[in-house]
Write a structure and sequence with these properties.
It is built from 15 helices and 21 strands. The chain is α/β, with parallel strands linked by helices. It has two domains: 3-9 and 18-152 and 352-510, 3-Layer(bba) Sandwich (FAD/NAD(P)-binding domain), CATH 3.50.50; 162-223 and 250-347, FAD/NAD(P)-binding domain (3-Layer(bba) Sandwich), CATH 3.50.50. The strands form five sheets. Strands 2, 3, 4, 5, 6, 7, 18 and 19 form an eight-stranded mixed beta sheet that branches. The chain has a five-stranded parallel beta sheet with strand order 8-17-9-10-13, with no helix packed on it. A three-stranded mixed beta sheet has the order 1-21-20. The longest helix is centred in the middle third of the chain and has 23 residues, at 239-261. The chain is globular and about 70 Å long.
Length: 511
């Protein structure tokens, strides 16, 4: 563990407000960070949110049919169990309402600053602090918690002629609820988690539905049901039953991990279940062939739906097994030459995940952006949270902390434990900041990628949004959520360089 001392900090009359921590984003990560900071006795913080309300991805994504594919009792904070979930897989409105309740229950309103989009965060080595510039002014802070999330910046392909399309165009995360799709010729581009919820929701009302499918997805039945009044009453009366339900859901998913990360062959039984659903719901052999993937299940995200295939088999639906190549007026041209007329173009093309947009706005101790630091290697961090050259920058859902089979709330809580541990350790040592050594970060990621080599995401024979253009998986965690919790339970100071802010001489005399 090395230590270096920056130049003394001298306050200026024009200095912006200073806080101990700036949190960026108010989705699950940002709200969770606020709660954990307050519970640790750290109340000098702000949560900067570019929108006008909390919710993150569950605020932005309000498309028809939007719901979580993780059971609700597991997709919630361990410190804020919710006995009132209406369904086993609750919808977007209920999840957003849950986050609003957590915000109020834990007194976070006074910390929130809405309509504050972070345009730059720059580490000032002389002052050993961050200067954060937002759309409404500046802040300085000892530390930054980046909780922008990987599903925050929509990705729309650059297509020739798209700007001249005469109809309506929007991304699934920017749904236009004022536009009536009834009777329209609608094209949906993409077959991911959003698209399989949108398609069955709009198919009955549109005139014609065309789905551009570059690669088919494996789809399992979604066993969703209403939570009975009796169940909710029991959870309210005996809170331990809610915790027990959550623990059972957690245990089932921990058992599944081995098949994804060490023995992908074990997924054959799951694949047969998906094949059975296609056979039962798609009677047309030609359409069934279009919708059957040629890669191992789990390689791409497994989707859950019992209504997707029936919607595609409907008389007003068509599947184009090719990506969209260009737009010629109202004519959509696929890569295989197929032409389709459309009035509405909906992109279910996902988000900027492996090229985290916020990285181009964060400047480290050498003046370099985080995007530049990751340019050659792809996204890398120590334990998914901290990055060499970026002191006191903590990620929530950072590089290689995503999951393929369980609840991201589990990973969020682990990373927040690590963040609080780091901040309280700094305070106990009288240090100002820390960042990982280059060696510690390199060794961690070498071991991680070694484990990644045998996962289904690497060996399953597909190309997914988990991977960079070079084929490196910088998104997912190749282990159980329990193993990540153990890895982030304590901070190992041998992996870090400490920075101590020097106290000006006049302040030492006054003290």
């Amino acid at each position: 563990m090395a230590a270096r001392t920056p130049k003394p900090r001298s306050a200026q009359p024009t200095d912006p407000p200073h806080v101990r921590v700036v949190v960026i984003g108010s989705g699950f990560g940002g709200i969770g960070a606020g709660v954990r900071l307050r519970r640790a006795g750290i109340t000098d913080f702000v949560i900067l949110e570019r929108a006008d309300s909390v919710g993150g991805t569950w605020r932005d994504n309000s498309y028809p049919g939007c719901a979580c594919d993780v059971p609700s009792h597991l997709y919630s904070f361990s410190f804020a169990l919710n006995p009132e979930w209406p369904r086993s897989f609750s919808g977007q409105a209920d999840i957003r309402a849950y986050l609003e309740r957590v915000t109020d229950t834990y007194g976070l309103r006074s910390h929130l600053r809405f309509n504050h989009e972070v345009v730059e965060a720059r580490w000032e080595s002389d002052e050993a602090r961050w200067r954060v510039t937002t759309s409404q002014g500046q802040w300085t802070a000892d530390a930054i918690v980046s909780a922008t999330g990987p599903l925050s910046e929509p990705q729309i392909p650059e297509l020739p002629g798209l700007a001249d399309f005469p109809g309506k165009v929007f991304h699934s995360s920017q749904w236009d609820h004022d536009y009536d799709l009834a009777g329209k010729r609608v094209a949906v581009v993409g077959t991911g988690a959003s698209a399989i919820q949108i398609v069955p929701s709009i198919q009955p009302k549109v005139g014609r539905l065309t789905v551009f499918q570059r690669t088919p997805a494996w789809v399992l039945p979604k066993v969703d049901r209403e939570i009975s009044a009796l169940e909710k009453a029991l959870h309210r009366a005996v809170p331990a039953t809610t915790a027990l339900r959550r623990a059972a859901l957690f245990a089932v998913r921990e058992i599944q991990v081995d098949a994804f990360v060490r023995r992908p062959a074990l997924l054959k039984l799951v694949q047969r279940m998906a094949e059975r659903q296609i056979a039962q719901q798609i009677k047309d052999p030609a359409l069934r062939a279009k919708l059957t993937p040629d890669y191992r299940i789990g390689c791409k995200r497994i989707l859950l739906s019992q209504s997707y295939y029936p919607a595609l088999a409907a008389p007003n639906a068509e599947v184009v097994t090719s990506s969209l190549r260009e737009v010629r007026g109202s004519t959509l041209v696929a890569a295989d030459g197929t032409e389709t007329e459309a009035d509405v173009l909906i992109f279910g093309t996902g988000f900027h995940v492996t090229d985290m947009p916020v990285a181009s706005r964060i400047f480290g101790d050498r003046g370099q952006t985080l995007a530049d630091a990751w340019k050659d290697s792809g996204m890398e961090a120590l334990r998914g949270t901290t990055v060499h050259g970026f002191p006191n920058l903590f990620f929530v859902i950072g590089p290689n902390t995503g999951l393929g089979n369980s609840s991201m709330i589990l990973m969020i809580e682990s990373s927040l434990t690590y963040m609080v541990e780091a901040l309280t350790t700094l305070q106990s040592l009288g240090a100002t900041a820390l960042h990982p050594t280059e060696r510690a970060q390199r060794v961690w990621n070498q071991r991680l990628q070694h484990k990644m080599a045998r996962t289904v995401w690497t060996t399953g024979g597909c190309r997914s949004w988990y991977l960079t253009e070079d084929g490196k998986n910088t998104t997912l965690w190749p282990g159980s959520t329990s193993s990540y919790r153990r890895a982030t339970r304590r901070i190992d100071l041998a992996e870090y360089e400490l920075i101590k802010r020097q106290i000006p001489s006049q302040q030492r005399v006054m003290a």
